[in-house]
Each structure stands twice: as structure tokens, then as C-alpha cells.
Amino acid sequence: MAERARGRTIGFVPTMGALHAGHAALLDEARRRADLVVCSIFVNPKQFAPGEDLSRYPRRLEDDRALCEACGVDVLFAPGADEVYPPGFDTQVRAGRLASILEGASRPGHFDGVLTVVALLFAVVQPHFAVFGEKDFQQLALVKRMVRDLRLTVEIVPMPVIRDVDGLALSSRNAYLSKDDRARAPALSRALMAAQDEAQRGVTDIARLTAAARGMLAATAGVVVDYVEVRDPRTLEPLATLDRDARVLIAARLGGVRLIDNGPVFAGVRYPR
Amino acid sequence: MAERARGRTIGFVPTMGALHAGHAALLDEARRRADLVVCSIFVNPKQFAPGEDLSRYPRRLEDDRALCEACGVDVLFAPGADEVYPPGFDTQVRAGRLASILEGASRPGHFDGVLTVVALLFAVVQPHFAVFGEKDFQQLALVKRMVRDLRLTVEIVPMPVIRDVDGLALSSRNAYLSKDDRARAPALSRALMAAQDEAQRGVTDIARLTAAARGMLAATAGVVVDYVEVRDPRTLEPLATLDRDARVLIAARLGGVRLIDNGPVFAGVRYPR
């Protein structure tokens, strides 16, 4: 962008649209830090596997535009798929191990699609920094890894998970939930808290932390657990014991809708609840 | 590079060292076009498969430095493998179909390694343009494809194949050839000429063009053909007939040393030989 040459700080928030208060938090953070805020809206076909929800993924460009305006976005970039991936497109950015575990195990190819479009959008927008939500914690780790590995000149700014009043992490996919499943969905954040509470009691045995979280999920009917893991927050490697600050990561399905959530667990009693 | 911000044009020639007159042609071209010429020397482990010639690949940094000086290189960048790929490195740039054919069929993973290091070096050096030899024609096509796909802001400048007086395309790997095989190696460039001569006679049947090249290779003892192909010069797709300007691509082995060469064939009589 020519704006960069003019010495203005460019902040970037890449999204798939269907914007909610979680995205607004990312945009607000970008607005605080940047002279020029760019928001992209692109439902990236490369990050959906066949049979996933590409076609029914919520698209609400007019609402999104209004939210962007309210958040002080300067440039809303909403390209078409043919514009992003013209005929003959044949290049992929992909991660190794970090893309194959957790979400990658359930969604093969998903992160290759994410990294490819993020690299491409970074090249087009040329931001000084980009804001990503910790909601997609593995995605954030992968983007940081890519930026380090490929020496991209963009700072990655993480933002905490934004939650509804009952604790459910905001996600565009929450719109798929039936009324009953929406009422059950806070089981995930309660499960996080259960693991955090155990850690605060001084438990360092990872199996006991995940058991506490699984117990909380099992207490809610209709929740099908995909994984409950406590991992190193940077490498996402499994831990034998809570000997460092770590991350609890949960994926579960309710009525066919796959939800993810995550939160920190601290080694040693850190704060009172 | 801060030089870029100062408005100086940066030209870049990425190499694996063992520099020869072919590299000198790339550096000369960079010198003609740029204010600042950067040459990298890095024997990229990621583009060698297990069992390939990584450990014995020629390394002659002092000679290379002298050639760079003679060519007016401003910055010689010769990083170590740990510097390029620090522990935890986990990102890859890869192409699809274009990386799976021809050289990619014989050398799985080779072009992933090439694209990854080229993307990374582009990010470090931030050149306005980079010069690549047509000797590695598929590599050049892949780098162009990557630059287009990932919207990298670097111009790719191709340079024609530089040949020894007997026609052999210059390559650092020619040093592996025995004296006898070195004498036989111009069979590849003669095979190119045979196909070109057929095309100049008005032959458009691809099979007849490749047969002429194969005939020339067969006339030299000890040449084991890997492939002889006439392809679209941009997509490297096979052609049914010479209905456009195309590229002859040859790979063959002599005494265990794999050599490649390529040249244009023109649709319609273009020039007298």
C-alpha cells in the first residue's frame, strides 16, 4: 500500500465476515494502534474441506460494513474468490507438525488454506501489524510461526477471547446452534474453568486437569467431546506435568456444530478467582 | 533492508555458491539494473532429498567471494543453515501440480525446499528484482508462479542459459563429471538443437520433435535419458502439437551425474541457423 510509504502505520484485521463483538475487539485494538485500519472479509474456500460448511457459512456483508464503519475501519477489503485465487493459482503456504495436530487432525488441509490466504493478504495489505483473536489459538500460533519462519515484516498482535455473558466464546459459527444447544454451549467455558480451578488448587498432573474439564463437559447432555488438551502455549506440544504456564484447548460438538474454546492455566497459584 | 527505504534499487541473485560464468551473467544483469546488488550463497538442505548430493555439493566460498567482487556485488549473504532454519522452523511454501512434474517427479520435495528458501530470502533481502537463470527452467516457472500467487513485490528477471564453448549448459554439478562424461555431456545441447532443427523444418508433431532429440542422445554412449519433453513454456503442460512457442526440456544421467538442459522451440520458422 502506498500509505505505508507515506509513513502511516497500517493495522490489519483479516476476517471471514459475519462480524461479531469478538471482531469488534480486534478492530478496536487495530484502531488504537494504527493510522490506517484495514479489515478484510473473505470466506476463504481453501480453508474448508469438502463437506465442511463453506456454502452455508454466514455472509452478511451489509451488517459487516456497518460494524466496520462503527469501529472506524478505513479500508474494507472484500475480494471475490477468483480475485484472490485467479485461474492457475498453484502455491501453498503450509506448516508441518503444528498444523497436523488438534484442529489439524480433524480438519486436514485447513491450516494450509489459512496460512496461504494470510500470507497473500499480508503481501497485498502490507500491514505493520495484524490482530488475531486467541479464540483460534492454534491458528494464532501457526501465523506467528509462519511470520517468524518466512521473516515476514508484520507484527502479530493477539487479542483475548471475547465471551458472551454466559461464558460462551463468540464465534460466527454459534449462529448454527439450535436454541437448546446454545443453552448447553457454555459447557466448554465451564470445562476450561474446571481445569483452571484444579491448577489453582495446585494440581500439576495434566490428566487430572483434563479429567476435570471432561467431567464438566460430560455433565451437559448432547456435548460430544473431540479433544480436551493441556499444551505448551507456543509449540502446542503435550505436557507431562504443569511445569510452566500452559493452554487448555477444547473442541466439542453440539448437534453437529463444532465449537472450540481455550484458555490459560498457570503453573503455580497465580490469582484468586 | 534499510537501503530500500532510502530509495535505492535492490537487485538480488540467490545462489548455492560454486559460482561459474552462468552466475556471473546473473550478477552482471543485476549490476546493470540495480543500485545495490545482493548475492546469497546458501546450499539449502531443504531442496536436497535424502541420498542426494547435499554433503558433496561443491563449496568454494573464497572463490565465490572473489567472483562476487569482480562482478561488483555489494552484499554477499552467506548464512548458515541454523540461521536460515532455526530450531522449530515449521513452515513451507509449496506449489501444486507445477512442482510435481518433470524435475519434481524425480526429486520429490525439491521444489518445496526451493520455494521456501526463496520466499524467505526475498523477505530478508526485500529486493526490487531477482535474477534467475533459465537453466533451471521449471524452478524459474515456479518462482514466477509463487510471486504471482502470493503477491510478492519482487520482479523476476530471467536470464538465458550460459553455455560452454561446446554447448554444455554451465552448472555447478558439471564438476562431478568424469573427463569422459564431460566430453559426452554436450549430447544434451545437441539434442535440443535436433528438436529445434525439426521445428525449423516445419515439423509440429511433438512426438517427432522429441524423437529427434532422443535420437541425438542415443547416439552418445553412456547417456541415460530421464525425460525429453516439449511443454508449454509457462504452465509446463504437455502439448499435442507445436501450435505455440514451446520449451524443450531434457534430463539425463551420465555416470550417475544428473544433468538438465532446455531451450525454446518456435512454432513456425523463426530464424535461420
Features:
homodimer, 273 residues, alpha/beta, Rossmann fold, Pantoate--beta-alanine Ligase, Chain: A,domain 2, 2 domains, three-stranded antiparallel sheet, 9 strands, 37% helix, globular
What does this structure look like?
The structure is a homodimer of 273-residue chains. Chain A is of the alpha/beta class. Chain A folds into 2 domains: 158 residues, HUPs (Rossmann fold, 3-Layer(aba) Sandwich); 94 residues, Pantoate--beta-alanine Ligase, Chain: A,domain 2 (2-Layer Sandwich), CATH 3.30.1300.10. Chain A has a 5-stranded parallel sheet with strand order 3-2-1-5-6, with helices on both faces. A 3-stranded antiparallel sheet of chain A has the order 7-8-9, with helices on one face. In chain A, helix 3 links the parallel strand 2 and strand 3. In chain A, helix 7 packs across helix 8 and helix 10 packs antiparallel against helix 11. Chain A starts with a helix and ends in an 8-residue tail after the last strand. Strand 4 of chain A pairs antiparallel with strand 4 of chain B.
Spans where pLDDT lies below 50 across 5 or more residues of chain A: none
Oligomer: homodimer
- Which architecture of the largest domain in chain A does the CATH hierarchy give at level 2? 3-Layer(aba) Sandwich
The secondary structure category of chain A is alpha/beta
CATH fold group of the largest domain in chain A: Rossmann fold
